[in-house]
Amino acid sequence: MSTTASATMAAESADTTDPASALTEAQQEPIFKEINAEQAVEVVEIESACMSCFKTGTTRLLPTKIPFFREVVLMSFKCEHCGFTNNEMQSASEIQKHGIRIELKVEKEADLNRRVVRSDNSSISIPEVELEIPVQSQKGEVTTIEGIIERTITGLSQDQEKRRIEHPTEAESIDAFIDRLRDLKLVKKPFRVLLEDISGNSFIENPLAPASDPQLKTSHFARSTAQNEQLGLYEQNHEDQHLLKPIAEDSWPIENLHGEVLQFSTNCPNCHAPCETNMKLTNIPHFKEVVIMATVCSRCGHKTNEVKSGGGIEPEGVRFKLRVESKEDLTRDVLKSETCSLSIPELDLDVGPNALCGRFTTVEGLLVAMREQLDGTLFHDSADEPSRQQLERFLTTFDKVIKLEQVITLVLEDPAGNTYVQSLSDDDEPDAKLIVERYERSFEDNEELGLNDMKTENYEQNA
């Protein structure tokens, strides 16, 4: 594995500073900062029209980060003339590669307190009462399940007194529906909350985190063309051949890429300051070609290493089961792709493919990354005491695993087949502690990989 290790070092150590395009300190200042009680909060104030009296009011903007989630802009409007106020939240993070679909089964009143972060591009439905809140019908917000129901009741109750006089039949129907919504808050019987966000920037809290929640189901889906256009993402016209032109055969052989460290401009994932990402194509012995990308931010010092498969999707998925018992097991090389999910059955821990990016590391490095993700991204400040104690107990147990005081089974499952775990046997066959299983992908696996709609024959006809 020395080839890959040297490639990673080459990508990280490449000079990322271009003197001709050096940025000033003001330009590198991060836009989204974590709220800190010890530092002054930078709020942007602008004048804007009041939608109630149409006079001039004041809008305050605060770009910040939400723990366990992404960057948002908090907006607060107040009119000094009529007293009208309005608070909104808009997602400021990038649109995710896939949309997200979350289903929560509410079984007890405590489930009503689950935190919900929803963007403008999310829709919510409760099938049991035939309630549906369409996409972009409400502004994004940070709320709870009970807050969603209460906001719906408030919206339906507006103008009811006037409606009872002018349209008594419609008002009676709305009153009956409001009573059904109030019954939901009593949780007399279980009901489902379905949250779908085409931008992928919404989530519902898992109070059992980092353990899996049997009441919460999360899946991802590929957006349709209409959904992409709704987000402002338009495909390039097939008739336009001016932007991308084919290169001549053998004019840039693949061998040249193995010796090149390519660079492209991006933003730091931590502070969003402009920086450079280094990319290198390398080969992992006994596996395949991979692309290693390394980003070092000169502003905040944040470093990231990400690995993406240089080949295609394998015909079958792969599942690795590794028994971690000794120091040798912790030093095994691991290539985790961006489609690989992790689980530790002994700890009842499931980590989805989107929680940790693709990376080339060791078993110990993978466990440490999982622990840091759990410790650094949960709602520490706003979590109640039982949840905080539960997380601390879990992290203590996780530390015992890293110190080899507790034996675990690490399961890596990749439907794309682009994950690799090093075997300690001489012939590279799985050793006694490593089990490798190949399996046929399900329809849902192919759907998340975008294979069900892929046409590989006669595709020029539709184009």
Automatic annotation (TrEMBL):
Q: Mind naming one GO cellular-component term on file for this protein?
A: nucleus
GO molecular-function annotation terms? Answer: zinc ion binding
- Asked if the record carries the keyword Membrane, the reply is no
- Give the GO biological process terms: system development
Give TM segment ranges.
Answer: none
Q: Which UniProt keywords apply?
A: Metal-binding, Repeat, Zinc, Zinc-finger
What is the name of the protein in this document? Zinc finger protein ZPR1
Task: Tell me what organism the protein belongs to.
Answer: Drosophila navojoa (Fruit fly)
